[in-house]
Amino acid sequence: MANDEHDQPIGTSTRVRDQPSLTTSSGKSWLILGGLLSLIAVAVLVPLLSQKPAGVALFAVCAIVALYAAMVVVRFNARPGRRMLGWLATFMIAIAVIGVVCVGIIAGSSGNVVLM
After folding, report:
1. What is the DSSP letter of 55?
2. First-to-final CA distance of the chain
3. Would the pTM of this model clear 0.85, i.e. be above it?
4. d(Cα 99, Cα 107) in Å, to the nearest integer?
5. Fewer CB near the last or first residue (10 Å), C or N of the chain?
6. 54 secondary structure, DSSP code
7. d(CA 27, CA 45)
8. Are 80 and 27 a contacting pair, CB within 8 Å?
9. What average pLDDT score do residues 54-74 get?
10. What's the pLDDT tens digit per position in 65-99?
11. d(C-alpha 34, C-alpha 116), whole Å
């Protein structure tokens, strides 16, 4: 049988958009995790600054720093609620995507990578 909303305890929605991190959070956890993700991404990208194609790693570092700065600005200047938390989530996803794509571009252009 399919799960009905009536079969679940009150307040336990399975929808992602109903999770506390996107509905009632203060945003502090987004800043902490976004900072960790940014730190890891920058730590991976800094050694790649001298690799070709030129400027890709520099672009990624600058974009990641700017996106984290945007997270901080939104957290402290926006009204608490879904919209603020949605922006924080969007910026964090963008940090991850830019980091992975730019590292992939650098690795792919090295000529020693086999992509399947």
Report:
1. T
2. 40
3. no
4. 12
5. C
6. T
7. 26
8. yes
9. 96
10. 999 999 999 999 988 888 888 899 999 999 999 99
11. 31
Q: Angle of helix 56-77 relative to helix 82-109, nearest 10 degrees?
A: 170
Q: Where are the domains of the chain?
A: 37-108
> 76: exposed, middle or buried (C-beta count within 10 Å: 0-12, 13-18, 19+)?
exposed
Q: Which residues contact 45 (CB under 8 A, 6 or more apart)?
A: 57, 60, 61, 64, 99, 102, 103
Q: Are 30 and 75 in contact (CB under 8 A)?
A: yes
Task: Give the rounded distance of the alpha carbon of 96 from its chain centre.
Answer: 5
Residue type, 16: V
Tokens describing residue 98: 């830019």
Give the gyration radius of the chain's Cα atoms. 19
Q: Provide mean pLDDT across the span 10-32.
A: 69
The label of the residue with tokens 């049988």 reads: 1
